[in-house]
């Protein structure tokens, strides 16, 4: 009996010790995650900012695509409220206008810089990395101050963002402190003295404000970018962002001139047409000085292997073989697609890329090809350029899969995509999310 009592007391002691240790660990973690609030300020007068700084801030906001995420459909620019679907639930973007109650009107420049570089709000709350501070942390303070000046000179809009809808326990913001320890790497983008000033400017923009890796780099289960696979391709808003390294699937290597044209107009006759989340990016880049876009293109093209040096290979068109293998797809293509994409179609003379040049058909992942058929393609710049209607309401998942299988077999020399109906069904579901 004495031995049993001693054993029970010993177990109780160990349980108590473990509970106390766990509680101490939780308290330490909370203490480490704590960030102080920054005192509010009276909204600064728009006239307190230098006009040149505001103009520069406007350009930098375009380079960062700020309005794309911080403007809901039908809403006022930069007033937030746009739903951002993530694997962890739906986040709603914040109001960036200088409204003192629902926006950033009481934020100082120091508070704004902290949010952009450390992901911490003026109140001290950790911000979710839907704000890509993984990249904004590399932006120079002078540029952040110019962005702040631009935002603070906008018309205030009183509009609070809806509450986020996240899976438990991710609504507990102190957890983000641990996420940042793993995935936030502060510091300026290093200058490469062996490269040109244009290339280094492009590196600064792409790695920082442009946050291109946010879409074009795969992410791990925790939502952090896999740095060892930088620019190897990723997923953005249900679309596939293709690789921007040597694995880029384009039929013809990108040149700097071709990429500049694409980034400013949304179309490259020798490559692709911008679609999905890339459309708003092109719209923004069409409004900034061309020199900035040329710098971006110089940097990205260097990652993809530079300009082509080999002769251009003939483009494939295995029409007969593809029709035998995918007869349903061939029939559907003839009825729904050939009027624009078939040989000799009048639309092909209006800058529309040949399907044998379409990057989405050559990619190892059929997601964007499925989304393009489901949702269609709209010209991103002032309604200029080729259009394509969506077929989500006209074709079933199985029919779209048949068309995609036929297109892949006819216009590329790459292996068949696997499980196409399931991919199309997933793309349809993600395209319907807010």
Automatic annotation (TrEMBL):
Binding sites annotated in the UniProt record for heme c 2: 212, 215-216
Major subcellular site: membrane
Binding site for heme c 3: 337, 340-341
Pfam name, any one: Cytochrome_CBB3
Record flagged with keyword 4Fe-4S: no
Cofactor(s) needed for function: heme c
PROSITE patterns xrefs: CYTC (PS51007)
Annotated ranges, domain Cytochrome c: 52-155, 197-304, 324-411
Cofactor: record remark: Binds 3 heme c groups covalently per subunit.
Transmembrane spans: 12-34
Record's protein name: Mono/diheme cytochrome c family protein
Organism placement in taxonomy: Bacteria, Pseudomonadati, Pseudomonadota, Alphaproteobacteria, Sphingomonadales
């Amino acid at each position: 009996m004495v031995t049993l009592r001693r054993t029970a007391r010993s177990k109780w002691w160990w349980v108590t010790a473990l509970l106390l240790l766990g509680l101490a660990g939780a308290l330490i973690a909370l203490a480490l995650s704590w960030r102080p609030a920054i005192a509010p300020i009276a909204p600064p007068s728009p006239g307190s900012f230098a006009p040149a700084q505001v103009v520069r801030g406007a350009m930098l906001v375009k380079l960062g695509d700020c309005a794309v995420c911080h403007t809901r459909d039908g809403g006022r620019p930069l007033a937030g409220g746009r739903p951002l679907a993530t694997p962890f639930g739906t986040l709603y973007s914040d109001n960036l206008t200088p409204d003192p109650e629902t926006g950033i009107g009481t934020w100082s420049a120091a508070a704004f810089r902290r949010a952009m570089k450390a992901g911490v709000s003026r109140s001290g709350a950790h911000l979710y990395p839907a704000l890509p501070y993984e990249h904004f942390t590399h932006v120079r303070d002078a540029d952040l101050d110019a962005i702040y000046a631009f935002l603070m000179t906008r018309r205030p809009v009183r509009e609070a963002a809806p509450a986020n809808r996240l899976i438990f326990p991710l609504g507990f913001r102190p957890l983000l402190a641990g996420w940042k320890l793993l995935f936030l790497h502060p510091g300026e983008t290093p200058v490469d003295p062996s490269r040109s000033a244009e290339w280094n400017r492009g590196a600064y923009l792409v790695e920082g404000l442009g946050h291109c890796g946010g879409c074009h780099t795969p992410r791990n289960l925790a939502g952090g970018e896999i740095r060892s696979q930088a620019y190897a391709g990723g997923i953005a808003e249900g679309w596939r962002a293709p690789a921007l390294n040597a694995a880029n699937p384009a039929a013809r290597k990108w040149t700097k001139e071709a990429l500049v044209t694409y980034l400013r107009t949304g179309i490259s006759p020798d490559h692709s047409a911008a679609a999905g989340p890339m459309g708003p990016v092109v719209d923004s880049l069409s409004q900034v000085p061309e020199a900035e876009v040329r710098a971006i293109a110089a940097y990205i093209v260097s990652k993809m292997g530079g300009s082509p040096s080999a002769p251009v290979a003939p483009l494939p068109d295995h029409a007969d073989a593809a029709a035998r293998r995918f007869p349903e797809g061939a029939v559907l293509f003839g009825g729904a697609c050939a009027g624009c994409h078939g040989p000799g179609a009048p639309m092909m003379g209006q800058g529309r890329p040949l399907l044998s040049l379409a990057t989405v058909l050559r990619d190892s992942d059929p997601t964007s090809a499925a989304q393009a058929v489901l949702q269609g393609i709209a010209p991103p710049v002032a309604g200029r350029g080729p259009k394509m209607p969506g077929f989500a309401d006209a074709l079933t998942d199985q029919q779209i899969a048949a068309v995609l299988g036929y297109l892949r077999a006819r216009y590329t020399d790459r292996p068949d995509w696997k499980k196409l109906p399931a991919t199309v069904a997933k793309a349809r579901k993600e395209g319907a999310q807010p």
